[in-house]
Amino acid sequence: MVDEASLLARARELDSRALAQIHDQYYPELYRFARYRTSDNATAEDIVGEVFVRLLDALHAGRAPQTTLRGWLFGVASHLVADHFRRKPALPISDEAPASHSPTAEAEERLLQGEVRAALQRLTPEQQNVLALRFGDGFSVEQTAETLGKSVTAVKALQFRAVEALRRALAPQGIDS
Amino acid sequence: MNDELLTAFDECLNALASGEDLEASLKRYPALADELRPMLETARAAQLLGVSFPAPRQAQLASRAKFLARAGELRAVQRPQTRRNWLTGWLFTNRLASAALAILLVAVIGGYSALTVSAQSLPGDPLYGLKRTVEQTQLWLSPNTETRAELEYQFTARRLGEVEQVMAEGRTVDVEFGGVLDGREGERWSMGGITVVVPSGTPIAGTPVLGVYVRVFGQSQADGTVRATRVEVQGAEFVGLVRAIGPKTWQIDDQIVRVGPETQIVGNPQVGDEVEVHTHTLSDGQSLALLITLTRTGASPTATLVPPSATPEPSATSPTPGATLTPGATDEGDDEIEFTGVVESIGATSWLIGGQVVQVTASTEIRDNPQVGQLVEVRAIRDADGALIALRIEPESSGPSPSNTPGGSGSTPSSSGTPTDDETETPEPTETDDDDGDGGSGGPGPSPSNTPQPPDPSQSPEPSETDEPDEQRFEGIVESINGGIWVVGGVTVITTGSTDIRDNPQVGDNVEVRGFPQTDGSWIATRIEKK
After folding, report:
1. In angstroms, what separates the C-alpha of B56 from chain A's closest C-alpha?
2. With contacts defined as CB-CB under 8 Å, which chain A residues touch B46?
């Protein structure tokens, strides 16, 4: 387990090894988070790149992350995702290939995925974040709690409310699965 | 919404994520099934959106290069630390010396100011030439090749930042910079996020293929591109077998490549594995690895293979934490691999097992609901991109209990790390009961077939009153000596300034190695003695 305190201390000195380690460690999970939230590869790349630019600015200005580094990074990512949707409210059409092979099933699956994504946008940012961390990044409840700076109990309640809200948002379409 | 419901919901979510059927997970909580079912069906739909999105490699590399380049720029403008206390005290008590020093300072201040200002100059600025001269001087004065390599990489990153800055200012000036070629469409190339227009007829030295490091000379344009006047390929891309792994260099086939903070290592390759390497050739001819990607495990034709099981029964070994890859045949075809490892994390579509990311799909057979911290046996295949797709995951019958394994449920998959910069807590080496003599899990890498078998960590090290605690020893034939990296009996042995090398062993000699085995299979030697 990386000693985050010493990693951050070296990062504040703009130590290239520490910074490279931070980028290698957190880029993939930040990307998955941003990709789950925005459904777009290019947008996710831009957001994650900006997260690291802001990290450098904060380190250089002496404003080191006060929470855990992961928590800080995901917090910035969450704000950037929110900014993105304020500027571009329309969701892009996903180009990911559904698992189905028959054209009919494929079309149905794309439709369902689009409706689930649209319904996700109606959740609060906090609810969307918890689903992105649990389902996009595959974080455990404990990891999610650490990232969000919440207790495990709070995260369990949050994910329940998030799925409940998602279910209500999907209900008019008669969609449960 | 009570605690029982929340806990039941969470447990069922985890079960679904690990591939369990909805009805099977609801059977755990029959009294809550009616309430849970619609919630879990909805959750399943949201989970399916989380199809694994691995970060695009080129995008990650480009982001990394920009990130480190920007850090280099910020370091250049950071004020140097000054130590005033002793100086001001000395000046106060030595007034004559103070006056002389002041006169000297005035004489040099003009030059020093120029140096300071030049550090922030950009291509096209009057003092930019001075900046480049200072950099060259630093390179000439480098005390060793490692410092030179680090400086050169820093300056390379600095060039990239300069180009970005002049383009942001809309200036048209001569520029030069280098980067990994990550896109090419007709005349428009992409390197480190910068679009370079390479008109037909532009002199190009070398073969610029995607993934290779190139250097561009040209002019920044008002439209945010660079128009190239010359292109030089200054790197290589090749595939080879890892022969040796050291803290600062790797040997891949016959090539020695330098590794450092700028090197990204994907897939945790070990000695004997096949890797794809992207390098940047430095001005002194050193090859600096930018990216090392595992493409095939245990690919050496002379590697010592762990004998495949006759039946897919769990091994009788009590393996150490970490993955043991057993390349080669299974009963289902040549592309399948089996390995054992500790489950470090369980995700919706991928697990981290013994440091390996393994994708799980609807077809993955997961037996007995393995948990984080549990030792499991994995049967998997590799897809076209080299990713491992699990066919089956099941607990290994004689593995350690979850409480004895590293990482636990708090660990998070990470994409890569350099074996030379490993700050993670690694498990203590443990003895294994290796009945079939296969070298055991976590043991040394493969060895050529015509040399003695690699040391078996399952054999109890001979106790000696001169051995330090936890020091072990083994014997083998010296296969190669490359600076501080030896290969003895197929094992990478790293020597330091403290290593006691006796009787001047040469390649081909039988030696006894004493030292400390590492979790990556290499050893740090305290003594090497010819036998």
Report:
1. 9
2. 116, 120, 131, 135, 163, 166
Kindly report the nearest CA distance between residue A148 and chain B, in angstroms: 14
Concatenated DSSP letters of B262-324: T-EEES---TT-EEEEEEEE-TTSPEEEEEEEEEETT--TTS-PPPPPSSSPPPS--PPSS-E
From A2, A20, A164, residue closest to B64, measured CB to CB:
A20
Provide, as residue numbers in chain B, all residues whose Cβ is less than 8 Å from the Cβ of A132: 50
**Contact between A117 and B49 using a beta-carbon 8 Å cutoff:** yes
Residues of chain B where predicted confidence (pLDDT) is lower than 50: 79, 81-84, 301-334, 398-465
CA distance B255 to B271: 14
Report the DSSP pairing between strands B500-502 and B213-220: unpaired
The interface pTM score, or ipTM, of the predicted complex is 0.87
CA B9 distance to own-chain centroid: 37
For B75, which residue in chain A has the nearest alpha carbon? A14
Q: A120 vs B413: CB contact, 8 Å cut-off?
A: no
pLDDT at B470: 59
Cross-chain residue pair B45–A170, CB shorter than 8 Å: yes
pLDDT tens sequence across B437-464: 343 343 333 343 444 444 444 444 444 4
Nearest to B45 by CA among A35, A94, A135: A135
pLDDT at B450: 43
Tokens of B131: 């900046």
pLDDT for residue B368 = 86
3-state secondary structure of A105: helix
Task: Give SS3 for B21.
Answer: coil
Report the distance separating Cα A51 and Cα B199, nearest Å: 35
> Number of CB pairs < 8 Å for A and B?
189
User: How far apart (Å, rounded) are the C-alpha atoms in residues B253 and B482?
Assistant: 13
Q: A62: which 2 tokens?
A: 């002496």
| Tens-place pLDDT, residues B321-343 | 344 444 333 444 445 788 888 78
Helices (H) and strands (E) in chain B, counts: 8, 25
- Type of residue numbered B25: S
Q: Where are the alpha helices (DSSP H) in B78-213?
A: 85-93, 95-118, 128-140, 145-168
From chain A residues 73-92, the ones with a CB under 8 A of any chain B CB are none
Residues in chain A closer than 8 A to B348 (CB atoms): 134-135, 138
DSSP states along B505-529: --TT-EEEEEEEE-TTS-EEEEEEE
